[in-house]
UniProtKB/TrEMBL annotation:
The lineage of its organism: Bacteria, Bacillati, Actinomycetota, Actinomycetes, Micromonosporales. It comes from the Bacteria. Keywords: Membrane, Transmembrane, Transmembrane helix. The keyword Transmembrane helix applies. This is DUF998 domain-containing protein. The chain crosses the membrane at residues 50-71, 78-99, 119-138, 145-169. It holds the Pfam family DUF998.
Length: 222
């Protein structure tokens, strides 16, 4: 079925994305970047930064394919809260590539500000989509197990984001700049893995949903 082909294409794109990010971690000059303190976007400023751009666009393309599969499988509607939030995740990923992060060797930039906003949009939109879709699926017995895994993945992603939120909110009284208060690179990588896992679980849901297509409660209202 078309939804299964879309979901599998999405998973293939995400697998290629993970392979490129793994390559960046072991190949100079990106392998010399301190992964504990430097964000993934730092790779885009290096000579092999093309791999970061390609990997992120592959993740965006794979996520878009998964969104199309979910809509096709009637797991969610494109105009629902879950569908819109998943679309914003894709837009945020593209924005991260189009607008480079601040290159602090030359100072802040408008591009860097937009990059940071796009990152925040992506990081928050996906778990919101997972929570909305998962909560809706709990009311539909044929897909409840898949919905629970997606819901838990959304919760896990938000928990991974919480150290960043704590660092931002605590800065006024600790006096420590938020990106120094936590091992930002490590936190972002953990968050990234949690969000990739969330997309993969959504893809799995899209492939399982057709088996329950004959039951009227399959279509989501998230």
């Amino acid at each position: 079925m078309i939804e299964r082909h879309l979901a599998r294409s999405g998973v293939a794109c995400i697998a290629a994305c993970l392979a490129l990010f793994a390559w960046l971690h072991v190949t100079p000059p990106s392998s010399l970047v301190d992964w504990r303190t430097r964000t993934l976007s730092q790779y885009a400023l290096l000579s092999n930064g093309w791999a970061f751009d390609v990997a992120t666009l592959l993740l965006a393309a794979g996520s878009a394919a998964v969104l199309a599969a979910l809509v096709r499988a009637r797991v969610l509607r494109a105009g629902s809260g879950a569908g819109v939030a998943l679309g914003l995740w894709v837009i945020g990923l593209v924005g991260v590539v189009v607008f480079e992060k601040h290159n602090w060797s030359v100072g802040p930039s408008v591009s860097g500000d937009v990059h940071r906003a796009a990152s925040l949009l992506a990081f928050l939109s996906l778990p919101v989509s997972a929570l909305l879709a998962g909560a809706s699926g709990l009311r539909r017995p044929p897909v409840r197990a898949a919905a629970i895994t997606v819901l838990l993945a959304g919760v896990a992603a938000l928990l991974c984001f919480s150290p960043i939120l704590w660092a931002l909110l605590s800065e006024p009284w600790t006096g420590v700049r938020w990106w120094r208060a936590i091992p930002l690179g490590a936190v972002e990588r953990l968050l990234g893995l949690a969000e990739v896992a969330t997309v993969l679980l959504l893809a799995r849901w899209a492939t399982l949903a057709p088996a329950a297509a004959g039951q009227p409660e399959v279509a989501a209202r998230a």
